[in-house]
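Form 7-S
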Amino acid sequence: MILTRRILLKGVLAILTLPRALLAAAWPKEAFHSTAAREALIGLLGTDRTTPSDEIELRAPLVAEDGTIVPISVSTTLPDVKSISVVVMKNPRPLAVSFELAAETMPEIAFRIKMAETSEVMAVVDTAGGIFSRSTQVKVTLGGCA
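Output:
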């Protein structure tokens, strides 16, 4: 038991001493700081071309009364999902979220985002077979982004 605790403690200490830049090396900074949806997708996936798919379920309210807390959920039946991202076309920073999924992970995510104004919301699913998307319009009555 002591040996296991020592190994765990050494592992935690090793992670804590890693430079911050090394831990965030894979973070797509350019994609998240882009001011246009096209640039964000290119920065994240290398292309802005997606194939519309009915195998993606994008759940969002038709009307969001408060743009600071808009609930979104995305799930898909597409095989070999690598990542799920959401782009809000008219936001100051369009790339709202991007989740990289481990193999054999159920491709289903739920979260809340901020929306500046009424906009198209697009779920983008990157798979081994291509990049797919599904969009919906969300009407925002009170904006949440400054």
